């Protein structure tokens, strides 16, 4: 007899709720949880490849300590006790010499962080960073500057939307299952879809409007949209009166940015822009102009994201049903939130090594800026950072200039990788602590804020096949060795009981569906009651915080650099079959898509004598890799494009090894090229040359 178990997918960052049917420690069937209607019982291809991950022997199966050179690939398999003793001893030695602040920790973000953040607080180090400076930091800071609230303070009410605009957001390939299903339902009910992209992706193939934009000119398009909305009074006048501050300053600022001016920058005809603005006004306020996700692209991407929040505000969409309604937290529906392990310890008073909050006052301090942490590791300014734990994070694949990063990591006394697949970062570490894949482990309980907030649980679906452990077991093991007895939990259930104290919910309540809802009805706030967390309580066109730091709230447009003859801006993104860099070696997904290809415009290809399917060499600063060309009309001539995550070179990954091209290796100087107001690395400020081999 099979048993049904509810858990949370971990193949990507979306954490879809899943249901597994299990018999004799084998997964017989895996599907989207039937208790979440928007899952429609489905998981995406990567979610379906979870069972292949657990059966894969080409993943770290035992704790390992490096012997020989860093990165040399010689390992000694050790017991968990030996591995944890080793890590704890090295951490103690570094802390004795340099103080607790010498410990740094990076992770992939997300809702399951409470225990390791508590662990870091317990040690007394402020140096927790998540990956976000390589992803959505610009969006987060843009949201804060306009609404005073983070990007997750609103949700995207796709199901009820009447017009959705995707600008550098490819929802049908960079998938979140529930979002995709909700958008498809909305489209069945007449919702329009507009895609603004440098190439025709799958989302574009389903769109009502597709605008192929010149890479790096999105801001020009958006400024002209703002001008047109204001000039023709198609914005929501009543909403603006109630909720928007300094609209007059915005109107004066956008004066020069006419649709005709934008056409010359972007290549999108002025009459098309005008028609599009009329469509927006008709659908408002049930419009979602998605503010972007992977917006770590240009040096001024922050201002593009800001312009998107401003447009949403002008349409009255922020707070609206079918737009971007404000989410509720447990407290908003009269419930108590999960008790935090982090509250066991005081917040460390030390300054952060990345300078966030003191050297760089414009940034929110929580997750810091990882690339600046690396700079501190390199320079020992403001102080030495010598012990580094990398959890669920692969910076050697995810940040530019891996060779330079390796030099920086070589200065560490200790580098630990906690991971469920091999990665360049794990391979370069001193210790690999093999994490059980998500189907074989539990996480701390988490809360999802939203229109209907709820608690949810990732539980072990099957027992680990190899000598791997859950993250809580690893943190508890280290906590015990480092004198943090409060965190030395003996079971996941003990942690869950701690978290649930005072909430009126018990662990058993999760058994039936995997979640515990905190309210039955969606909480849409009345529009006239909306208040924002800015100083004025309104949506601010001019941010006092930025102005006080001499940073403009409204940045005049500057045209992006044009590539020289024969060279192209290197752009990248996701596909539905892989997650970042860590699924290429998954046996099922590898079979579906073993390598990436280089999208290149037909006209440019013809000039270079490149035909579809040819092998081409891509070069930057003397570094070259080869890849097959996909010659197409559907990409802007200034750009070439690859799916990120390929070009693995690690010996233990027999399938992924030497297949495709690694985009992050074509970003010379890239660790220093970042958005100074949004905080994120500017990954698309790089050019490559392409030639036929
Ligand atoms: N050049 C270039 N660089 C990029 C990008 C790009 O497109 N091009 N994309 C950027 C973006 S958007 C992001 S978010 C970052 C991502 O880069 P990272 O933040 O490094 O995230 P992942 O590649 O997902 O790597 C997570 C690592 O954790 C391990 N892992 C352990 N447990 C889990 C788990 O439960 N779930 C998952 N998913 N992994 C686990 C995986 O095996 C993998 O090695 O890279 C960024 N860097
Ligand atoms: N299948 C799958 N889904 C994922 C992930 C995954 O790895 N695989 N990763 C998750 C993560 S961590 C993230 S951050 C999100 C990312 O989600 P998205 O940000 O939606 O995904 P991307 O594919 O990085 O980028 C979206 C689009 O931006 C376009 N683009 C590039 N440059 C420009 C430009 O200058 N202007 C415009 N207008 N468009 C441009 C690309 O062509 C691409 O189609 O996806 C999440 N979901
Ligand atoms: S989108 Fe796919 S891979 Fe990501 S959590 Fe959902 S099912 Fe898993
Ligand atoms: Mo991301």
Topology:
Blueprint: E1 3-8, E2 17-23, E3 26-32, H1 45-48, H2 50-55, E4 64-66, E5 75-77, H3 80-98, E6 103-107, H4 114-123, E7 128-130, H5 137-147, E8 163-167, H6 177-188, E9 192-197, H7 202-205, E10 209-212, H8 218-231, H9 237-243, E11 244-245, H10 247-254, H11 259-266, H12 270-283, E12 287-289, H13 301-314, H14 370-379, E13 387-391, H15 395-398, H16 402-409, E14 414-419, H17 424-427, E15 431-434, E16 446-448, E17 454-456, H18 471-481, H19 492-500, E18 515-517, E19 539-540, H20 544-548, E20 567-573, H21 587-592, E21 597-601, H22 602-608, E22 615-620, E23 623-632, E24 639-643, E25 687-692
Parallel strand pairs: 6-7, 6-13, 8-9, 8-12, 9-10, 11-19, 13-14, 14-15, 20-24, 21-23
Antiparallel strand pairs: 1-2, 2-3, 4-5, 4-15, 16-17, 17-18, 20-25, 21-24, 22-23, 22-25
The protein binds ligand MGD (2 copies), iron/sulfur cluster and molybdenum atom (MO).
Residues 135, 294 line the site of molybdenum atom (MO).
In short:
This protein is of the alpha/beta class.
Description:
It is a single chain. The chain has a 7-stranded mixed beta sheet. It has 4 domains: 3-55, ADC-like domains (N-terminal domain of TfIIb, Single Sheet), CATH 2.20.25; 64-134 and 334-517, 3-Layer(aba) Sandwich (Rossmann fold); 156-325, Dimethylsulfoxide Reductase, domain 2 (3-Layer(aba) Sandwich); 567-692, Barwin-like endoglucanases, CATH 2.40.40.20. It is globular, with a radius of gyration of 25 Å. Helix 5 crosses helix 13. Strand 16 (446-448) and strand 17 form a beta hairpin. The protein is built from 22 helices and 25 strands. 54% of the residues are buried. The mean pLDDT is 97. The longest helix has 19 residues, at 80-98. The protein has 693 residues and is α/β, with parallel strands linked by helices. Keywords: 4Fe-4S, Iron, Iron-sulfur, Metal-binding, Molybdenum, Oxidoreductase, Signal. Residues 2-58 form the 4Fe-4S Mo/W bis-MGD-type domain. One of its GO terms (molecular function) is 4 iron, 4 sulfur cluster binding.
């Amino acid at each position: 007899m099979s048993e049904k178990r509810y858990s949370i997918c971990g193949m990507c960052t979306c954490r879809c709720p899943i249901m597994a049917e299990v018999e004799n420690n084998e997964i017989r069937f895996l599907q989207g949880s039937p208790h979440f209607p928007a899952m429609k019982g489905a998981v995406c291809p990567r979610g379906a490849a979870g069972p292949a991950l657990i059966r894969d022997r080409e993943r770290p199966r035992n704790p390992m300590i490096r012997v020989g050179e860093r990165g040399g690939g010689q390992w000694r398999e050790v017991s968990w006790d030996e591995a944890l003793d080793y890590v704890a001893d090295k951490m103690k030695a570094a802390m004795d010499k340099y103080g607790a602040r010498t410990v740094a920790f990076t992770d992939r973000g997300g809702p399951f962080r409470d225990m390791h953040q508590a662990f870091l607080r317990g040690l007394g180090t402020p140096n927790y960073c998540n990956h976000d400076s390589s992803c959505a930091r610009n969006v987060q800071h843009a949201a804060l500057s306009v609404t005073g609230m983070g990007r997750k303070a609103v949700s995207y009410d796709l199901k009820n939307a009447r017009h959705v605009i995707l600008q550098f957001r490819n929802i049908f390939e960079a998938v979140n299952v529930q979002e995709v299903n909700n958008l498809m339902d909305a489209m069945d009910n007449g919702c329009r879809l507009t895609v603004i992209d440098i190439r025709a992706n799958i989302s574009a193939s389903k769109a009502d409007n597709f605008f192929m934009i010149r890479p790096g000119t999105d801001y020009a398009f958006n400024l002209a949209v703002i001008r047109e909305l204001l000039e023709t009074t198609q914005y929501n006048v009543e909403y603006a009166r109630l909720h928007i501050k300094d609209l007059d300053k915005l109107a004066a600022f956008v004066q020069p940015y006419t649709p005709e001016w934008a056409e010359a920058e972007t290549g999108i005809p002025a009459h098309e822009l005008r028609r599009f603005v009329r469509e927006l006004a008709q659908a408002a306020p049930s419009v979602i102009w998605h503010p972007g996700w992977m917006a770590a692209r240009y040096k001024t991407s922050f201002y593009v994201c800001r312009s998107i929040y401003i447009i949403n505000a002008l349409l009255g969409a922020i707070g609206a049903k079918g737009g971007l309604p404000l989410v509720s937290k447990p407290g908003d529906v009269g419930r108590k939130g999960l008790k935090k392990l982090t509250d066991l310890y005081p917040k460390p008073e030390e300054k952060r090594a990345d300078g966030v909050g003191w050297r760089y006052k414009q940034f929110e301090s929580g997750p810091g800026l990882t690339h600046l942490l690396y700079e501190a590791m390199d320079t020992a300014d403001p102080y030495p950072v010598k012990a580094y734990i990398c959890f669920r994070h692969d910076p050697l694949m995810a940040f530019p200039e891996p060779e330079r990063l390796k030099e920086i990591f070589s200065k560490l006394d200790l580098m630990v990788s906690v991971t469920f697949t091999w990665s360049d970062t794990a391979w370069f570490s001193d210790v690999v602590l093999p994490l059980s894949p998500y189907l074989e482990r539990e996480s701390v309980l988490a809360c999802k804020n939203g229109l209907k907030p709820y608690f949810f649980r990732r539980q072990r679906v099957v027992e680990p096949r190899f000598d791997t452990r859950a993250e809580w077991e690893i943190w508890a093991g280290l906590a015990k060795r480092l004198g943090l007895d409060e965190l030395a939990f003996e079971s996941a259930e003990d942690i869950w009981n701690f978290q649930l104290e005072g909430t009126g919910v018990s662990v058993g309540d999760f058994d039936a569906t995997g979640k515990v809802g905190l309210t039955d009805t969606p909480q849409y706030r009345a529009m006239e009651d909306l208040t924002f967390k800015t100083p004025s309580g309104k949506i601010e066109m001019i941010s006092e915080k930025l102005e006080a730091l001499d940073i403009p709230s409204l940045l005049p447009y500057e045209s992006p650099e044009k590539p020289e003859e024969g060279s192209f801006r290197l752009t990248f993104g996701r596909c539905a079959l892989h997650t970042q860099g860590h699924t290429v070696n998954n046996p099922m997904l590898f079979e579906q898509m073993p390598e990436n290809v280089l999208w290149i415009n037909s006209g440019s290809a013809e000039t270079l004598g490149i035909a579809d399917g040819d092998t081409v060499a891509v070069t930057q600063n003397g570094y070259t890799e080869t890849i097959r060309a996909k010659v197409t009309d559907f990409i802007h001539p200034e750009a070439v494009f690859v799916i990120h995550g390929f070009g693995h070179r690690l010996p233990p990954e027999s399938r992924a090894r030497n297949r495709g091209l690694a985009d992050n290796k074509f970003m010379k100087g890239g660790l220093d090229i970042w958005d100074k107001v949004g905080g994120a690395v500017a990954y698309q400020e790089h050019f490559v040359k392409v030639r036929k081999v």
